[in-house]
Amino acid sequence: MSTRAEQYSATVLRREQLSDHLVRLVLGGEGLAAFRSTDIPDEWVGLVVPGQFQARYYTVRSWDGVEMVLDVVVHETGLVTEWARGECVGDVVTVTEAKGSFDLPEGAQWVLLVGDLTALPAMARIRETVDLPTRIWAEVPDDMSGYLPPGADVTWLPVPEHETSELASVVEQIDWPEGEGYFWMAGESAQMRAIRKHLMRVRQLPSHAYDVMGYWRSTAGRQPRAVDPAPIHRAGKAAGTNDAQTWADHHAAREQE
């Protein structure tokens, strides 16, 4: 039996510049008719654009059964960046099947969300979906004050001048709520590795109480590399490996590439 991931053809119906670093793409067309959402609020899909054969991964900001909204972070260079900044309306792209990771434990009383600009679409959708007290810390380069749902309890953090994320130190200073909850975070892989260590060694959280994913990996001046977290996450769960060890093994392999 084939395990090949499902793929769907889609047309770019509309494009909107949300900020200097974030572009909204609205996809549709008959090719998306068979697409099925996971209904997991941080679900993502692979996107293959014209002139490119490798997928890049983006959160599904919304899907209404007809149109899919992807909010794409753009960088200085790169195939997706150059394409998304241009006249891409009318282009045909490929979308892969959706995958998700957010897994709210039964009995959770609150949710904490932390991330950079790549995590903002997922944090917005989680905030819309989860009916629990939710606090958000967002490290972004632009004014995104109108992006999250109205009334969101959010602390906006500027990107440091040296352009190295400081989210790890932010998490270390969080005043955690009482009771049981769920911590979700996504961003640059090196920062996520440091935060997992903090959650495991200092906070001593059980693995089901948090989900921390590296959405992209810095490559020293080149376009950041997108990372699909699903295979890593699922392989670790299948092997019975705890979350910290699963991601440690992944990063060790990455660093030897």
TrEMBL record:
Residues 5-105 form the FAD-binding FR-type domain. Residues 233-257 are annotated as: Disordered. Residues 248-257 have a biased composition (Basic and acidic residues). InterPro entries: FAD-bd_FR_type (IPR017927), FNR_nucleotide-bd (IPR039261), Riboflavin_synthase-like_b-brl (IPR017938), SIP_FAD-bd (IPR013113), SIP_fam (IPR039374), SIP_rossman_dom (IPR007037). It comes from the Bacteria. GO terms for molecular function: oxidoreductase activity. This is Siderophore-interacting protein. It comes from Nocardioides jishulii.
